[in-house]
Structure formats: C-alpha cells, structure tokens
Amino acid sequence: MVTLFKNIKELVQVRTEPISFVSGIQMKELPTLKNAYLVVEDDRILDFGLMDHFSPIQADKIIDATGKMVLPTWCDSHTHIVYAGNREGEFVDRINGMSYEEIANKGGGILNSAKKLQKTTEDDLYAQSKVRLEEIIQLGTGAVEIKSGYGLTEASELKMLRVTQRLKEHYPIEIKATFLGAHAVPSQYKNNKGAYLQMLIDEVIPKIASERLAEYIDVFCETGYFSVADTELILKAGRKHGLTPKIHVNQFTAIGGIQAGIKYQALSVDHLEEMRDEDIDALKNTNTMPVALPGCSYFLGIPYTPARKMIDAGLPLALATDYNPGSAPSGNMNFVISTACIKMKMTPEEAINAATINGAYAMGLEKEVGSITVGKKANLLLTKPMSSYAFIPYTFGDHQIEKVYLQGKEINP
Ligand code: NIG
Ligand code: FE
C-alpha cells in the first residue's frame, strides 16, 4: 500500500541524517521543506522531497495537503494512563485550600488511586485505560510510555503492566512500559519502607523482567517518598534485570536524585521543577534526557521546569504530559507544547523538537519515530490549513490536527 501526500505546505521536522536528540542551540532549529511531497509504503516513510523534484509514482491513495502541514506525531515519554477511577474530589479540596502534600498525608493522592486500582479487575482497568489511549491518539500522540505505580502490591502492579501489554497488542501506537513500584509506600508498609523495597527487589522486579512486562524502571525520588539511597537500590536492582532507569525527581525538592539517575545511566530524569545550578551542571554531556511536564505545573500550581536556563546551558529537553489522575489529568500534547511556549518561554521550534525527536529518545524510540526520516514509522499528523507551525502553540487549548496516521494508516475517530 503506497500513500502519497502532495502539495504539503510545509513538511516539518525533516531529518535526512538520523539523529538521537537535539540539545542547546540546536533546539532552535526545526528543519522543514516547503511545498513538499511525502511517500509512505505500508507502515514506513519511503521518500520525501520538494514538489519541484517530484516524479509521478503509482500510489494507492493520494492526499492533497494544499495549505496544510505534515509533522511526525507527538512522542509522550511520561504517562500513567493505566489507572482506575479519578480524583476530582482532591482537585476540589485543593481549590478549597488543601495542598497536594496534605491530601497525600491523609491517605489521598497515590494511595487513593492504589486503593481504587486494587479493587478493579484487569478487564475493567483495560476498558478504562483504552479510552485514554484512544483519546491521546486522536490528539496526535504516536508513541507513549506508560508507568505502573498505582498497584503497590505484586498482584496489582502486574495487573497494570498486563493491561499495558494488552494495549500494546491491540493498538498501532508505539508503547513502552515502565515499572514504578516505588511510587509511594503502601499503607501496610507505612513504618517499614525497607521491607517494601526489599519485596520489590526480591520478588516483583525479577518476575517483571522474566515475563518481559517492562522496559524501564522508575522511582519517585522525593522528600517523604523515596530517598536517594532508596532510589539507588531500586535502580541498581532494575539494571541487574535489564530494566533501564528513568526517574521522577526534583518535583518538589532537590535532594540529589538527578546525580543518582546519572550514576545509574538513567535514560531520562523527569519533572525537574526545582533545579539547582549543580543539577543542571550534572546533566551536561550525559546521555540522560531531562523531561519537563508543564501540565503538572499548570494543574498543581507549582513552578515550571526552568527550560530557558537549561537549554541555554546547552542541555537537551523533552516535553511530556505526565497524564495521571492526581497531578496532570490531561494527555493533550498540543496543550503541553503551548504551555511550554507560553509559560516556559520555549520557542515553537524548541517545543516541537522537545515533543518529537527528544521525546522519542526518552523512550528509546529515536530510530523509529520522532522525525520525518526515510525508514522511520509513518506516524504522521496532517494539520488543518495554517500559515505557520507557530499556529500550533499559539492556539492554546485547541489543536490543529486534521488527521492522524499511525503505521501509515489513517486513524478513524
Ligand atoms: O508524576 N510525582 C509523582 N507521581 C505522579 C503523580 C502521582 C499522583 O498524584 O497520582 C507525577 O506527578
Ligand atoms: Fe509522573
């Protein structure tokens, strides 16, 4: 099956040479081709170029993209979309003055979601989660990472990861799974965090690795949750079983977790709302991708990741939604890109790089998605007619996507 997109006003994020990610000043450059064509064969990008150089081909389907743009789909490298129920009650409590921390200390927060999830059957959890997956696909996401961490028992953590496995089998979107058993200390281990960690290390991690239920291991490294020493224990155990580290770190306090992530060669360090100069310095010249989650800052009213300072220091940056019921109940990457431009002063070029190629890298998918490159998966966005790609972040709260293609096939709403 060959599909031809012709008369594309602007083909965005064109990378002839494969790249892993962009950092610092390179993030300001977003290569494009104006008045272009793109050829897709089956699930991959076969060819692209300027309309002036186009020689007619036999295509099964021709899409006239006059006035419209084509981009790679968004790469959302940090979500928790497998969860049960919602927490709008806590949202109202916060409006009425309670803090996220106070709610968590009263058994709300992550423990509240865990209680709900433990009582939910695998089939019901799948049914609830697939609605969110379908929703983010419609919003232009073509690759997503999904974490466990609302189970907090062996059975429920495995249930979450099995649901993610089923989503992988049933949907054409790229999915990576992360084990986040160390997300909160469950109430039954309230005074015995060490025993909980030991149980994760001795029983759950080996099982997940042997059943190949996850690619990554994550920890919520934060004051009141898991210390740097706890984080190192879990990352080390994960690595031993072939799980690559990714951490939740520097969300509320900077306690040295970034350095621990780098020590264990984390693929990404995520949140980073609280960044000290030494944290920025530590990330220089590493293979660890910093990931900002502006939807979480927006929703909780906490500081935004200092993107300007980080990029100006030469670092790369990826953007993700953190889609979860407590701190970011939205999987809309279009909103994340807008918010990064409006609140974090990222340019549209930086934000689009952060939401495509850099996000792909943060999921180990930079060879498959994240740019318009021959041989990559044909996971594409066709926009509505627009004058420039800056219109995407400019029209905040809306989106400019006319059609989404995954593995070369149009996704029907
Ligand atoms: O990434 N920070 C830790 N975990 C999630 C939110 C957890 C929750 O409130 O349910 C996050 O923000
Ligand atoms: Fe998160």
Structure description:
The chain is α/β, with parallel strands linked by helices and 413 residues long. The chain folds into two domains: 2-72 and 371-410, Urease, subunit C, domain 1; 74-361, TIM Barrel (Alpha-Beta Barrel), CATH 3.20.20. Helix content is 35%, strand content 22%. The chain has 15 helices and 16 strands. The protein has helices spanning 88-95, 100-105, 110-118, 122-138, 154-170, 193-210, 228-240, 257-263, 277-283, 294-300, 307-312, 333-344, 348-355, 357-361, 391-394; strands at 2-12, 32-41, 44-50, 61-64, 69-72, 74-79, 141-147, 174-182, 216-221, 244-249, 268-271, 289-292, 318-319, 380-383, 401-406, 409-410. Strands 1, 2, 3, 4, 5, 14, 15 and 16 form an eight-stranded mixed β-sheet that branches. It has an eight-stranded parallel β-sheet with strand order 6-7-8-9-10-11-12-13. The two termini are 21 Å apart. The chain binds N-(iminomethyl)-L-glutamic acid (NIG) and fe (iii) ion. N-(iminomethyl)-L-glutamic acid is lined by residues 109-110, 113, 220, 248, 251, 296, 322, 324-327. Its cofactor is Zn(2+); Fe(3+). Residues 69-410 form the Amidohydrolase-related domain. Belongs to the metallo-dependent hydrolases superfamily. HutI family. Pathway: Amino-acid degradation; L-histidine degradation into L-glutamate; N-formimidoyl-L-glutamate from L-histidine: step 3/3. InterPro entries: Amidohydro-rel, HutI, Metal-dep_hydrolase_composite, Metal_Hydrolase.
